[in-house]
Design brief:
Layout (H helix, E strand, L loop, with lengths): L1 E8 L4 E11 L2 E13 L1 H18 L4 E6 L2 H7 L8 H14 L3 E6 L6 H9 L3
Parallel strand pairs: 1-4, 4-5
Antiparallel strand pairs: 1-2, 2-3
């Protein structure tokens, strides 16, 4: 399963929205666009990944590739960079618990390859 994610923030900090686009066998099977309260852009990015894993698990996936245009999220979630922010560390712990036992990979994609998740995250902001 391939899942594209994006987080948006109106102001930083400000209202946050997440976008998740789930593909199975090359076909878009689910779109998620949710407002998630106030916070920073990085919190929105991480929250989108957490939501993507929750949805992937509910759909029965045992292997998930998360694709995002956030280089920082990819590096931190892959364990290549340390997570300094306490808020992000907490969300990363939740992501790690969700990913435990699954084959999860994190891949950076350019913004233009992440159009659906980007649109969904911005729609969530209203």
């Amino acid at each position: 399963m391939i899942i594209y994610t994006d987080g948006a923030c109106s102001g930083n900090p400000g209202p946050m929205g997440i976008g998740v686009a789930i593909y199975k066998g090359g076909e878009l099977i689910r779109e998620i666009s949710e407002a998630i309260g106030e916070g920073t852009n990085n919190i929105a990015e991480y929250s989108a990944v957490r939501r993507a894993l929750e949805e992937g698990i509910s759909l029965g996936a045992d292997a998930i590739e998360i694709r995002t245009d956030s280089r920082l999220a990819v590096q931190q979630l892959s364990g290549k960079f340390r997570v300094k922010s306490p808020h992000l560390r907490e969300i990363k712990r939740e992501i790690d618990v969700l990913a435990d036992g699954l084959d999860v990979t994190y891949t950076w994609v350019p913004r233009e390859k992440n159009e659906v998740a980007d649109r969904l995250s911005k729609e969530a902001l209203g």
